[in-house]
């Protein structure tokens, strides 16, 4: 269950990062509420995952899912640039996530 909680926590991190961007600095009510609710859910699920997963593994994978997910949402929905260097950076993050999973011990 810890890995399930961690993956959902990472996906919620993507949602709260995107909704924070859409909240225009917390000046729009609905995206601001979505940000706060999904942030709370993300942190709660991360905490549950950390009950049995190592700190370094859980935190790295959580932030990695959030970073790559936010990168993809930015490209898809916000028209952010797709450059070779940004793609390489995302691939390096994914490589780090895989390495943490393989070396995590749980």
UniProtKB/TrEMBL annotation:
* Membrane topology of this protein: Multi-pass membrane protein
Question: What does the UniProt keyword field contain?
Answer: Cell membrane, Membrane, Transmembrane, Transmembrane helix, Transport
Alphabetical list of InterPro entries matching this protein: EmrE-like, Small_drug/metabolite_transptr, Small_multidrug_res
Give the matching Pfam families: Multi_Drug_Res
The residue ranges crossing the membrane are: 27-49, 61-79, 85-104
Name where it's found: Cell membrane
UniProt keyword annotation of Transport present? yes
Q: Which domain of life is it from?
A: Bacteria
* Similarity-based family: Belongs to the drug/metabolite transporter (DMT) superfamily. Small multidrug resistance (SMR) (TC 2.A.7.1) family. Gdx/SugE subfamily.
Q: What is this protein called?
A: Guanidinium exporter
